[in-house]
Structures are given as structure tokens and as C-alpha cells.
Amino acid sequence: MLEGKAVVRETDMPENIQNHVMELAHQALDAHEVFDCQSIAHYIKQKLDEAYGPAWNSVVGKDFGSCITHLSGSFIFFRVEMMEFLIFKDGKDFSQSREEAIGVFRNA
């Protein structure tokens, strides 16, 4: 369990979703051992998929690199004490047709 406040390093998420993601991170940290990064990440992904639809990704750890693409408005990178969280949604929402997905970006 980590008690520290979340510190956002970078995000393009709306504030209400940021707050939800950080609350989920604290819940995951309370429910799992701090060193069990896979279970923490899985918990966050599962809860976000339930709340906002599929295709969320969650990376949790103390030392990792990344190079990602994400849907606009779905990215946050933050830390709680020594643990870092990279949360984002990618474009693989298979419940949408290809035409619907393309339409979303044309109208953006």
C-alpha cells in the first residue's frame, strides 16, 4: 500500500477521468501487494474497460520505457511515491466498425 498523492507528469485526459484513473490506482494499490505490478495494472485496465469501453492499456512499475500511440483525450502518466502509471486507450475498440473509427477522427 502506498499512501502518497498522485503527481501527474503528463496528460491529455479530461480532469474527471484523470481523477477516476488516479482513484483506481489507489484502489489497486490497496488491494494488491506493491511489487505485484501485473495485478495492479490488470485491475486498472479492467475497471476502465468496464467504465469507458474496451481497449484501455495500463503499464505499472518503477522503471520502464515506452513509445505509444493513443486516442486523443485518453493518456495519463503519473506517479504515486516510487510507482509510475502509464494509462491510455488505443484505437483497437473492436466493437466499432472501421468506418465508425475513421469517422471519429475526421470529425475531431
TrEMBL record:
Q: Which UniProt keywords apply?
A: Cytoplasm, Cytoskeleton, Dynein, Microtubule, Motor protein
Matching InterPro entries:
DLC_sf (IPR037177), Dynein_light_chain_typ-1/2 (IPR001372)
Q: Which GO terms describe its biological process?
A: microtubule-based process
**Where located?**
Cytoplasm, Cytoskeleton
SUPFAM superfamilies linked = DLC (SSF54648)
Which family is this sequence assigned to?
Answer: Belongs to the dynein light chain family.
Recorded GO terms, molecular function?
dynein intermediate chain binding
The upper taxonomy is:
Eukaryota, Viridiplantae, Streptophyta, Embryophyta, Tracheophyta
- Cytoplasm in keyword set: yes
Q: What is its main location?
A: cytoplasm
Identification of the protein by name: Dynein light chain
Q: Name one Pfam family in it.
A: Dynein_light
What's an example GO cellular component term for this entry? cytoplasmic dynein complex
